[in-house]
Amino acid sequence: MWRRRQLLARGAAGGSALLLGACDRVFQRPEVRTILFKGEDIHRGLQRALFDRDALAPEFRPDQMSPRFRTNGTRDPGTDAYAALRAGRFADWRLTVDGLVARPLALSLSDLGAFPQRPQITRHDCVEGWSAIGKWQGPRLAEVLRAAGLSDRARYIVFTCADYYGGAPYYESIDLVDAFHPQTILAWAMNDRFLDVGHGAPLRLRVERQLGYKQAKYLMRVTAVESLAGVGKGRGGYWEDNVDYDWWAGI
Ligand SMILES: Nc1nc2c(c(=O)[nH]1)N[C@H]1C(S)=C(S)[C@@H](COP(=O)(O)O)O[C@H]1N2
Ligand SMILES: [Mo]
Question: Where is the Oxidoreductase molybdopterin-binding domain (predicted)?
Answer without folding.
Answer: 91-226
